[in-house]
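Hey, can you fold this one?
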Amino acid sequence: MRARGGCGARGGGVPARLPGAGGASVIGFTMVVRASPVAGSMSGAGKVMLAGGSAAEAVNASVARQRRIALKRDMEPGLYVVATPIGNLGDVTQRSLETLAGADIVAAEDTRVTRGLLTHFGIRARLVAVHAHNERGGAAKVVAWIAEGKSVAFVSDAGTPAVSDPGAALVAAVRAAGLPVIPIPGPSALTTALSASGIESAGVVFAGFLPARGADRRERLAALAAGPWAIALFEAPHRVAQTLTDLHAALGDRDVVIARELTKKFETIARVPLAGAKAWIEADPDRTRGEFVLVVEGRAAEPASAVDPRAVLETLLAELPLKQAVALAVKLTGAKRNELYALALELKK
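Sure. Predicted structure:
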C-alpha cells in the first residue's frame, strides 16, 4: 500500500454535515466525495487524464533536449530526494521535473512506475532500481556514482520518499559518506490529510503503518494512547476496518478522519467518531477500497498524579507480573491503564 498524497484545492462536491452531540464537539459525519473525475487525476484503471494535453506535447522536443543538457551541467553531484504525485499529475512541481530531467541517474522504487511518469512528461533518463529489498546494496552503488561526480535523483512509486517508503537507508548511506543530500519537496499524503482533517492539536505523532497483529501491535497502540497528541497513520484497505476497531479500543471516544484516495478520482474525506468508524467503513464496499490515511484527534493533557507512577510501577514490577502490577498501579495512582501499561513495558525493557 502506498498511502501518500498532495492535492491542491479544487471544486466539486459540497460537504454534507450531520450534527453531532452538543457543545464544542464536532463529532458527526462530514464528507467530501468527488462525484466526477478530478482534472489531472489517475482513475482506478490507471489511465491518466490531463486537462489541455500532456506536458510532453506542450514543449518543443529540441528545446527540451537543450534544457536537459543545460541542467546536467548545472546540477551538482549529490542525491536528490524527489517527491512525485500520488494520483493527480498536476501536483508535480517544476523543480521536480527539472531535477528528474537533469539528473545523470534516476534511482526508483519501481522502474516500471517511474518510467511511465517520466514518459508522460517527455523525460528520458537512465533508470536503476533501488527498493526495500535491495536498498542497502543499491546505496553502495549510489554512493560510488555520486563520488564519481554524478547527480542521482531518487523517487519512490509516489509521494515523498522515506516517509513509510524506501529511502531512509539510502539517505543515511550517502550522508555517512559525507556526500550531499538535497530534498526536492512535493506531494505527501501525511500533510495533505492533516491539512484537510480539521483536527486541532498541539502536536501530531506520525505512526506510519501499525504492526499487522500480535503483541507488537498492542504495544504500539498502548504507546500511542499514552500521549496527548493527534495521531496520523497509514493503513492498507484489507486492514482498515480492524485498525479502526483497535484504535477505538486503545484510544477511547475520539474522532477520526478517514482520508481515502487523496488527489485521485474517488477522493473521500470523512470525520466520524471512532466508536462508529468501523460501521461507517463497512456500510459501503467502496469505502474499504484504495489507500488510507487516518488522523485521530488528540486528548487534553491531564494534571500529573500526586503519586509518581514510575516509582509505583518500579516497586510493583519487582514483586508482581506485569498485568497485576499495572492493575494495582491504576488503583494506587489514578492514572489511566493504557498509560501505565506503556510505562510498564518501557520499564521491563
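The first strand starts at residue 16 and ends at 18. Let me know if you want another pass with a different chain boundary.
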